[in-house]
Amino acid sequence: MIKSLNTAATGMIAQQSNMDVIANNIANVSTYGFKKGRAEFEDLVYHTLKDPGQASGLNSTTPTGVQTGLGVRTAAVQKDFTMGQTVITKNPLDIQIEGSGFFQVRTPDGEIAYTRDGSFKKNGDGKVVDKNGNSLIPELTIPQTSVNLEISPAGEVRSINGERNAEPQILGSIEIVNFINPAGLKSMGKNIFQPSSASGLPVSGRPGTNGMGYLQQGEVESSNVNIVDEMVNMITAQRAYETNSKVIQTSDQMMQTAVNIK
Question: Does the N-terminal peptide bond of residue 138 adopt cis geometry, omega within 30 degrees of 0?
């Protein structure tokens, strides 16, 4: 009876973790470049009373054993890196990666981080930065005379000056990176990721090469959260949580009945 109490308690804890992941997905439904998570579970060790295949006679073995599971735990939160919907903004510094890849930004502590959020801005020095002031890598500086920018699908950035009949000025190129296992990236908040031993090392290149996506100017990638799917997942998690709580109540009633026997 005690086993069922502990087992059901692990189920409630696991579903609480599941609900935490779902809540984070729903909260970020409007976050550019956000990638939804999915909680994954695994069963705990088993209390084995009899091993499968144990000898039951001189020339016979049991086809099954007697094993009692001791519950569940959260094994992983898997990031889903499928593309989100396209939001057309017509802002020249909004860039979407159509396909695989990440933008590189330099954080204030000098580290390089990676993001799918392509809603870039221009700071007081003309440098292209993200909404938190992290500089895009390679660095791009927009001249004061620029009246418009052109970013090609392959990443070439050209500035159109206000002077009449002036030729477009090439400012540089945007490189993106990819990882062998993007799901292994570590989420740092503020729409950025950092690599880990699970993600592998970043491989940089021009957009459209080595399996990387192309760039699309004037667009940003929205969150890939599907609110209807998350509502269904939330109902499922709630029912699983309630059912585990019923198991605890039933186990308690059975123990109470056993205590009251004289």
Answer: yes
Cα 194 from chain centre: 12
Q: Residue holding tokens 């933008």?
A: 103
- The verdict on 135 and 208 lying in the same domain is yes
Same domain, 210 and 91: yes
Give mean pLDDT, residues 5-14: 94
Q: Where are the alpha helices (DSSP H) in the chain?
A: 2-27, 227-260
Strand order in the sheet with 128-129: 121-122, 128-129, 135-137, 103-106, 112-115, 192-194, 186-189
* 103 and 211 together in one domain: yes
SS3 (DSSP) at 26: helix
Total Cβ atoms within 10 A of residue 79 = 15
CB atoms closer than 10 angstroms to residue 147: 10
pLDDT, tens digit, 9 for 90 and up, residues 139-187:
999 988 888 899 999 999 998 886 666 678 889 999 999 999 999 999 9
**How far is 131 from 139, CA to CA, in rounded Å?**
15
Query: Computed over its alpha carbons, how large is the radius of gyration of the chain?
Result: 27
Q: Which two tokens stand for residue 60?
A: 């016979």
- Whole-angstrom Cα distance, residue 194 to residue 114? 6
Q: Are 49 and 96 members of one domain?
A: no
Query: What residue type is 253 in one-letter code?
Result: Q
**Residue-range definition of the domain harbouring residue 52:** 2-81+225-260
- Please check whether residues 98 and 67 belong to one and the same domain: no
Non-local (6+) Cβ contacts of 110 within 8 A are none
Which pTM value belongs to this model? 0.87
Instruction: Answer yes or no: do 150 and 212 share one domain.
Output: yes
